[in-house]
Amino acid sequence: AKEQGKRTFIVFSPEMNRRVAEYMWLDTNLRKGLEQNQLVVYYQPKISTHTGLACSVEALVRWDSPERGLIPPIQFISYAEESGLIGPLGLWVLQTAAKQAAKWQQQGLNIRIAVNISARQLVDDSVVNDLACVLEENQLTPCMLDFELTESSLIEDENRAHEVIGRLRALGAQVHLDDFGTGYSSLAQLARIPLDAIKLDKSFVRGVDLAPVSQSLIRAIVAAAEALQFRVIAEGVETESEDQFLNCVGVDEKQGFLFAQPMLPEEFEAWVQSYRP
Ligand code: C2E
Ligand code: CA
Ligand code: CA
Ligand code: CA
After folding, report:
1. Would you place residue 4 in the very low, low, confident or very high pLDDT band (cuts 50, 70, 90)?
2. How many whole angstroms from its chain centre is CA 54?
3. Which residues, including other chains, have CB under 8 Å from residue 86's CB and lie 6 or more apart?
4. What percent of the chain has pLDDT over 90?
5. What average pLDDT does the structure give for the chain?
6. Confidence check on the interface: ipTM exceeds 0.90, yes or no
7. Which keywords accompany this UniProt record (predicted)?
8. CA distance 197 to 215
9. What pLDDT band is residue 121 in, cutting at 50, 70 and 90?
10. Candidate from 46, 57, 60 with most ligand 1 atoms within 8 A of CB, to mutate
11. 189-226 pLDDT, tens per residue?
12. What is the pTM of this model?
């Protein structure tokens, strides 16, 4: 008989078709985009509640595709993570941020830059060597580069993650736990991680001025962070009254559209010169 085995029918829904097509488009174009220098880093300031001034910026990548224009990271970071391209992409962001920090330092603008890293980048220790290299190449004071990592990157291999975090901090970088509150780490886990700060996810910050439950939650988180000696950074601050609430509960740094959008380096330079608390 010609027919052997059972026939399998795979039915693709329009949504699956769209996803497959998108994956294939990224597969053809993202690596090329990275090699052809189409990625761009934007910088969004964080404001210190203590000084009222910008103390740091977060590096946020975008892709300026000739075909589609400016593409936000949400549309290509997970592909990069799945395909392994996050390695070279993450290194490129780190190198770009280091060059920018050195340039600003030469201009007398001392501002730390925080770089996002994916769980994938934490499983081997290349990020530690990468940091050491970019600091050396750009003759940067070590404490000018920080890292933001998510809770999920700590779950997979806790001991490994702790070791890498310890080595990054030994090189002078701060390590911040990003999107705090959206994962599942317990207080006990949190107490074991050698962190500098937790970054409250914007879903908690959104409308906190009006929501008693979120207010109690943020107060409790700030108290826990104080006990563990972590600083607290709030992201996604969009309104004056959210800002006032965060000042009152003792958050250390704030970031959000209320202060500034992510900006190109020249835009940030102009912004920081005219920003008054
Ligand atoms: P994230 O690290 O949680 O970054 C915060 C996101 O919120 C950014 O989106 C930022 O532009 C946006 N945002 C800032 N202020 C406000 C606000 O007041 N309101 C609202 N609604 N949103 C605000 P963006 O730039 O699109 O980045 C999205 C995510 O992509 C980031 O989330 C981060 O997880 C990832 N990402 C960006 N750049 C990199 C990178 O270089 N490496 C890696 N691994 N991930 C990156
Ligand atoms: Ca972040
Ligand atoms: Ca977030
Ligand atoms: Ca505090």
Report:
1. low
2. 17
3. 77, 80, 118, 120, 121
4. 74
5. 92
6. yes
7. c-di-GMP
8. 19
9. confident
10. 60
11. 888 889 999 999 999 899 988 888 889 999 999 999 99
12. 0.94
Reduced DSSP (H G I as helix, E B as strand, rest coil) percent helix, strand, coil of the chain, to 5: 50, 20, 30
Ligand 3 centroid from CA 150, angstroms: 9
Select from 5, 63, 78 the least CA-distant residue to 32: 63
For a mutational test of ligand 1's pocket, the pick from 116, 150, 153, 254, i.e. the residue with the most ligand atoms closer than 8 A to its C-beta, is: 116
**What's the CA gap between 122 and 170, in Å, rounded?**
16
Contact in structure between 29 and 256 (CB atoms under 8 Å): no
Q: Tell me, using a 6 A CB cutoff, whether residue 118 lines ligand 1.
A: yes
Helices and strands (H and E) in the chain: how many: 12, 9
Report which DSSP code applies to 11. P
From the number of C-beta atoms within 10 Å of its C-beta (0-12, 13-18, 19+), residue 150 rates as: buried
> For ligand 2, a single-atom ion, which residues have Cβ within 5 Å?
116, 148, 178
CB atoms within 10 A of CB 248: 11
Q: How far is the CA of 60 from the centre of ligand 1 (A)?
A: 6
Handedness of CA 90, 92, 96, 99 (dihedral sign): positive
Binned at pLDDT 50, 70 and 90, residue 88 comes out as very high
